[in-house]
Specification:
This protein is an alpha/beta fold. It has helices at about 25-35, 45-55, 75-80, 125-140, and strands spanning about 15-20, 40-45, 60-65, 90-95, 110-120. Helix 1 links the parallel strand 1 (about 15-20) and strand 2 (about 40-45).
Length: about 140
């Protein structure tokens, strides 16, 4: 379980990364990239798995695909809000093949970082961005 709190073994869990993407090859590629850097990562193939990770206490950076079948990334974020699963211990970054922000972001600026990682992505830039946002979350957690 990925929790940013003290678990039953008195171990403090740091923020991690959740990859939400319907494409298995993207999930696996990003997972392997981040895992090779020692970044704790979980995957979700869409809205329902994402919500389940959040219900289980996930905190950290959420890399959310914009275009997914069923509920897209924006609809997934609305579901997160609807079920009160958003917190300051999460940062959402959108993964997209689009070059410009999506108009569906309207009304969600308060929960989505004004940042997109475009596909195909540069692996070194992805790692740098994720590390920067994880550092921000650690500061929030520490009350800095």
């Amino acid at each position: 379980m990925n929790k940013t709190m003290i678990d039953e073994n008195m171990e403090i869990r740091l923020p991690s990364v959740m990859i939400v993407d319907d494409e298995e090859c993207i999930r696996e590629t990003v997972y392997e990239l981040l895992a090779s850097e020692g970044i704790d990562t979980v995957v979700a193939d869409g809205c329902e798995q994402c919500l389940q990770h959040l219900r289980n206490g996930f905190t950290g950076v959420i890399l959310m695909d914009v275009m997914m079948p069923g509920k897209n990334g924006w609809q997934t974020i609305k579901e997160m809000r609807r079920y009160d699963l958003l917190s300051p211990r999460q940062m959402i970054i959108m993964l997209t093949a689009l070059d410009t922000p999506d108009q569906q972001m309207d009304g969600l600026q308060d929960v989505v970082i004004d940042y997109y990682i475009t596909k195909p992505f540069d692996p070194s830039q992805m790692i740098k961005s994720v590390r920067n946002y994880l550092a921000c979350l650690r500061h929030v957690q520490a009350g800095v």
